[in-house]
Amino acid sequence: MPSVTIDKRFCGPPNSANGGYVCGLLANAMGGSGEVTLRAPPPLGRRLELVATADATIELRDAQTVFATGRPRVLQIGGIPGASLVEATAAADCTAFADPSTHPLPGCFVCGPERARGDGLRIFVGPLAARHLDQPEAVASPWTPAPDLAGENGSVGCEFVWAALDCPSGFACQGRQSGMTGKEPILLGRMAAQIEQCPKPGEKYVIVAWPTGRDGRKLFANSALLADDGKVLAIAQATWVVVGRHVQPGHR
After folding, report:
1. Under 8 Å CB-to-CB from 20, ≥6 apart: which residues?
2. pLDDT > 70? residue 134
3. Mean pLDDT throughout 108-128?
4. What average pLDDT does the segment 81-103 reach?
């Protein structure tokens, strides 16, 4: 299998890769969908190997460390909150995380407000309107993928779809429903995604995410990518882990 070197552009924390992006790299080797467990912070700018194992899993590793493992999985999620582009834009306008001074990782490729347009994805989720009574802590953001995210087939690469579904679930699971203040450091531990259709660069989409529960330090949330007509293009399920403040650096 091919080796990969993760460019520093695709960071989450300053010195390691964005978790959703890494999960998407492994998913590429599984046809675009599946489940990935992150086992150590994936480094930037270093050659890593994608290795197929005897038990049908995929590993991202170097000689000493396994950074992530992926396995096939078919994901099904119900109760996806609907949100129009207007609603998603209004939600994003209400977020506190578009301000670098209040964002936990302002240089993150997906949600970092320090990243310029065309560099980071700049997905800033905020609370949906109160009409979503079945999912009162659902969050949403619009997303227009940039042209350089396209693969050879003209659609956005699945690693970027996984990345776009990653951070929104992290913000969703930090609400009051989970007993969180929003200031606790958390890191992605596991992510599963099912991509039915990859988006097209330059077109407008909606990202929604909502919390689904908590078990001690583990937080659970789902997310989805919607077309402007409400069609569900991709879904994801994430497990986040509350960590000590010394584990997660806040600035680049």
Report:
1. 110, 162, 163, 164, 165, 166, 167, 188, 191
2. no
3. 94
4. 86
Indicate the helix (H) or strand (E) that contains 106: none
In the chain, what are the domains?
3-71 (3.10.129.10), 85-242 (3.10.129.10)
Quote the pLDDT of residue 251: 37
C-beta atoms surrounding 199 within 10 Å:
24
H-type alpha helices, the chain: 19-28, 85-93, 158-172
Retrieve residue 94's tokens: 């209400």
Please tell me what DSSP assigns to residue 239.
E
Q: Which long-range contacts (CB under 8 A, 24 or more apart) does 148-154 make?
A: 148/118, 148/201, 149/201, 150/200, 150/201, 154/200, 154/201
pLDDT at 248 over 60: no
Which two three-digit tokens encode residue 111? Answer: 């949600």
* 160 pLDDT more than 90: yes
Is the pLDDT assigned to residue 198 strictly greater than 60? yes
Q: Kindly give the pairing relationship between strand 186-195 and strand 126-127.
A: unpaired
CB count within 10 Å of CB 227 equals 16
Q: Which two tokens stand for residue 221?
A: 């949330």
Does 249 score more than 80 pLDDT?
Answer: no
> What pLDDT is stored for residue 182 in this prediction?
67
Burial classification of residue 180, based on how many CB atoms lie within 10 Å of its CB (0-12 exposed, 13-18 middle, 19 or more buried): middle
Calpha distance 194→26 (Å, rounded): 13
Q: List 5's β-bridge partners, or say none.
A: 47
Beta strands in 65-158 (DSSP E): 66-71, 126-127, 139-143
Distances, alpha carbon 228 to alpha carbons 59, 94, 102, 164, 205, in Å = 35, 20, 30, 16, 6
